[in-house]
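> tool_call: predict_assembly(chains=four)
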Amino acid sequence: MIVVMSPLATKENLQDVIKKLESLNLRTHLSTGDERTIVGVIGDKKIIANLEMEMMTGVEKTVRITEKYKLVSRDFHPQDTVIDVDGVEIGGKEIVVMAGPCAVESLEQVREAARAVKEAGAKILRGGAFKPRTSPYDFQGLGEEGLKILRDAADEFGLKVVTEVVDREDIPMIEEYADILQVGARNMQNFQMLKALGSAKKPVMLKRGLSATISEWLNAAEYIMTGGNENVMFCERGIRTYETFTRNTMDLSAIAAIKELSHLPIVADPSHGTGRRPMVAPMARASIAVGADALMIEVHPNPERAWSDGNQSLTPAQFKDLMANLGDIAKAVGRTI
Amino acid sequence: MIVVMSPLATKENLQDVIKKLESLNLRTHLSTGDERTIVGVIGDKKIIANLEMEMMTGVEKTVRITEKYKLVSRDFHPQDTVIDVDGVEIGGKEIVVMAGPCAVESLEQVREAARAVKEAGAKILRGGAFKPRTSPYDFQGLGEEGLKILRDAADEFGLKVVTEVVDREDIPMIEEYADILQVGARNMQNFQMLKALGSAKKPVMLKRGLSATISEWLNAAEYIMTGGNENVMFCERGIRTYETFTRNTMDLSAIAAIKELSHLPIVADPSHGTGRRPMVAPMARASIAVGADALMIEVHPNPERAWSDGNQSLTPAQFKDLMANLGDIAKAVGRTI
Amino acid sequence: MIVVMSPLATKENLQDVIKKLESLNLRTHLSTGDERTIVGVIGDKKIIANLEMEMMTGVEKTVRITEKYKLVSRDFHPQDTVIDVDGVEIGGKEIVVMAGPCAVESLEQVREAARAVKEAGAKILRGGAFKPRTSPYDFQGLGEEGLKILRDAADEFGLKVVTEVVDREDIPMIEEYADILQVGARNMQNFQMLKALGSAKKPVMLKRGLSATISEWLNAAEYIMTGGNENVMFCERGIRTYETFTRNTMDLSAIAAIKELSHLPIVADPSHGTGRRPMVAPMARASIAVGADALMIEVHPNPERAWSDGNQSLTPAQFKDLMANLGDIAKAVGRTI
Amino acid sequence: MIVVMSPLATKENLQDVIKKLESLNLRTHLSTGDERTIVGVIGDKKIIANLEMEMMTGVEKTVRITEKYKLVSRDFHPQDTVIDVDGVEIGGKEIVVMAGPCAVESLEQVREAARAVKEAGAKILRGGAFKPRTSPYDFQGLGEEGLKILRDAADEFGLKVVTEVVDREDIPMIEEYADILQVGARNMQNFQMLKALGSAKKPVMLKRGLSATISEWLNAAEYIMTGGNENVMFCERGIRTYETFTRNTMDLSAIAAIKELSHLPIVADPSHGTGRRPMVAPMARASIAVGADALMIEVHPNPERAWSDGNQSLTPAQFKDLMANLGDIAKAVGRTI
């Protein structure tokens, strides 16, 4: 349930409302806008069903929410959420670019990638130290050694770090190196890990599952937010369909959907979304046009020799070209990059 | 097979090549560029397999094509094809907008829609007179009477007409009223109709089938082109996936794919592609950003009373707003609108 | 709407009911069971909405139908429909087997196939004379010459003929050769052809579209039945999914669904449904177990040399083995074969 | 690589082969058949590429395997694997039935279910104590308390227990109560958990992911087997498609595929596979017909009051009817039940 306060409501009115709700063991979430404050209410359904708040002073109206997700819902929190990643804002006017190799292979590789993406304008370095791979015989990542490489290269070039978590046990360790904790598509409904991320200190980027509905995706984010971590961003990376020309079918309408249904930022990943190098640039442009708050792009110093995902990685030169072209699109939708 | 002529080849060299190919009962398609001419060769596979053209004067090299589609392939015809729709060019620098109601309901409805879309900048009026409907008890369209209404309204406001063909028998009659013949998603592999459209005089807009692969779509266009009608454009209108929040999943990467694989123009239909009014504008913007040559948008004077597809139709005012916003995006990708 | 007559209703009561409905320009369809008669009512929704039939003598109750399909619905016609194909019954206790090559290639090929499938116990010969092919350069079938071959081979060995219709213009001609008119997956929503089949004299087998929902499939059959042709059977041949190990994903639950929702018979096609020879036998067994009324199996005298679908065709020997194994399964579900 | 020993090979020949392979740091897996022994070889690809084993005495031939999965492959292990679940064999001639409620709700509920399923012939009790739920506000299971209930009810009625693991940390605790550890669809590619299950002492049942390919599924099992746990069985529970009439689309051809590609047993779950009570019985029959080694069926004493999945649960009476009907089908495919 949402309690919408009147523009004329006083602080005391608001505190009375909260006090009443808490006295019934209900949890509250405040969203303070320019004109009015909105109080989100979560808790025992039966108690909420019998709540009558309209008669309290300062309450304009109440709205019942039928969707299961609450904290991620734009109904609960009408303003866009802007996440502060150690100084880099995601969800604001500026479109943020995350770039780097699929997997951390060596310090040289990561340094070369970091230098290139920084020069082209990226703010965040991506790279996998723990790789979820279909086969147990494929390269599984360098682990903590890879995290150190990422951190060192990022620090050298003034970048932030986003990297994937594949096991909830690793969260405290990864938090020491990374600025954003990525949940991969295969773990979108690894609910134990989502719960653990709810008490993580760092922002979380939640990739859409291979065949997750938008509703399931929002509910997965709700798992993290109910744990207390409000810094959640989504990442569209393509869904599984019958089409085989592309690696996945990138669902750009999902970006519009998330913007409509939630206040949280959303990142677009055209590299995994298409799996084909020539499509990365046009789909990056389209992602900005449809409303993405950030882009995630695979860049490898030498894609043909990449240990994974070479087909979809840009060279530093291609990435530079791409970045040079995004400013006009961003401007056309009232953003900067 | 493709025979690439040398930049130094003379007209006589080219004619010798063509003469030789025709003497073997092979068909040829010329694509004349600024620097060199390319000769596409179609016919008996065994004869082509044994062809040795490299030794002929003026031939630079030959390329074997493994894809089944030839005439639609960009290998065969490297330059973009621009289709002239009675003075309106599709596939050139200008992005063309087609708009109007899902179904023709009455002269008043169509006139009102035509006036509105013309004022906002559309060049082509859309509307269905023959409606393929899931149930036999649903409204099946006004038929020829609907075509007259479309033509009259279009002429009054200086618009061209695009409308759907559902039966190959109707083609000659529909050609008298329409400027573009639309093949709907359900008929994308109605091969008899595609063959008949091969000898139609008007351009054809081929919508992607509900679950058609990009390869099947290109081959469907090949059916039309082999019949002699070279004015074929594609239309992405969403594919069927597990997601139910949207009516279809609009596959914008398919637009990039068509641009890569074919020289033919492509139209984006965010109305059917999403089935949800609030998504039409963002997905229209993204369609332009990814490279679409035209947009198809449903506009109804009174969407709540539309006989079909009301949920996805814009009001005239919403359409006007949308059009006012597309210029910047078009400019950002080097196009006009 | 359905009008359920009382077990005690007289013929006069029934005639009064029909007279009343027809006087309101409503159409009626009778379903006469052992105990009671059911009158299906179709026509103007507003008139039906205001109908009050319960007070008429002999009427037990009326039931409003919310699904769009009526005539195909088991609500309208509770008993199983048994279709008489020139003496071969489909939908009764006996499971009927249709077998033969994908495409008619030559008289020798079809005669050899016909002899083999007849000896193994098939009742109906399958074979395509008109082939819907993805590419215009693929073999499109022998046309009427192929139909003659099919008919001659079938007559020689005492078989019936099922063959595909790809153009409504061909229906009268194909009816002269075939006993069952097949609608292929790509034409399931070729509504003009469905309407034309509504006035055909021969039974129709309606294959499920590549990505058709069960509801769309039932409505497609409704198009045929509303035209007056009540001899419609369904055919499950696999749907399109992300899985590539099989050619399609055969949806056996659709057979259970059709049996629940409709009174019409259903055929299972494990050859197209799986596209892999080793799976044909196990999926044929499962089809019978789940309730299929008939099987359609591709058999080619020499699969490696088949012009199409060789990978999924059984040899005559494999088909004989398969048939020898189906009796026990049929018996286990109270059927014969 | 597979080394196929000659039927005439001596034990010494075999030991020489193994010794040679181990000296190269390669791992070996023996599969001893009636006639010959097969040695599966896993390890460094480069070393294997250069292996020349054919000249060793007793070696008949070597076969290179291109698929990434090895230990699960039927090439490596031609005989069917039979898993001994504390005396109940899965993968042998007898089809084993696992049944019980979706979630453990109370001791009474589980006891009632256990009594009913035992009486009807089930050998294994199913029930979830840890429930992966789309929303954080849905019932998440009773946890260890639920496991105790399951164990007690199972012991009282002489049943074994299968239950889901959702967190690798819980494995040792769950092993104390359960006989089979279930991996749910959402965790099929939770690779950390799969690795942990590789050192579990109890057999694992690996459900197919919502949109997992057969190849991904086999590779997921390979993760468990490479860890040393050879008692892995698959469970087909339906995949995600566009069809909404059923909860999932149960892919029975996947059962045939697993039987072709792997030696491991496979369970069919028509309750989750269809999500609709009336379809459970026909799809259970079809599962046996296509080759399933076991069935998993949801049974609840009072489905309308079930906390989850009530729509797909059978009543005890319905389950009894179902079981009474499966014997004939089992017999028809040479099995018992």
